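Supplementary material to the annual report.
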Amino acid sequence: MEINASRSAAASDDAIQIELDAMMEIFEEYQDKLPEGAYLRGMNALGSLHRHKRTTLAARRPGDILRCWQTLDEIMDENEDLYDEIMEVADDIMIELCGDDATIYTNHNENLVARGEEKELFEALVNYKPVEGNAGYETSPMVLHHALQLIMARLFDDTYHELEIVRPVSCQCGWRGSQGNWDRHITNMRHVRWVLSQRRMIDARESVVVRRESGIVYIKSLSPHLSGSEFDIATKEAIHAAEMAGDRVIFVCADGTMSWFA
Ligand SMILES: [Zn+2]
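Predicted assembly:
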């Protein structure tokens, strides 16, 4: 349908132009034999016909084409032959722009073009123009549009994937690196030690406060050898929190005796 619409518009354009050219030739050939006024009127009429042809066909063409326009998704669902045609045009354009080894039929682990060549291809696609002899010339505007979009979509996916690999990420343990190194980082010894210390910190916070009652917080008395440990930090945090809340702190020793002092 869509292809027929654009082909019939193009065919009308050509047919009218042939007749106009024939008239023009006759006027030129018999210019000497015609009164000057007749020649000029004839040439003016031809000029008007040429403009009429352009405006009439231009008004007809977009409507004819747009009525039958389908999205790529619709074509994939409803018209496999047309989809194949789009892929073929995309493949031809790839070969035209990137050389004989290029193809749209690469598997998705493989980039469409070598790293660093994306921008050049992208610009060639943005400025692609169907001219006689090139891959986009013989096809319809809709097929050409989707073929170009298909290549651009692949280029975007490739670029996005590359970015994901090199995108800098940071870890709470203090490490900074690229996304591609993340899997290796989480098995790194420094990171593992950090994760373990985080867990000990959580355990220490849970165990340091023995109980709370009426404005008094009972905190486990710290053994000197625990100084500097997660337990030490958790104790200081608990004391600070109690002071901020206006609570009194009582230390409980391992044997159950209590003290105002640590
Ligand atoms: Zn880390």
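The pocket of zinc ion is lined by residues 171, 173, 175, 185, 191, 194 (CB under 6 Å).
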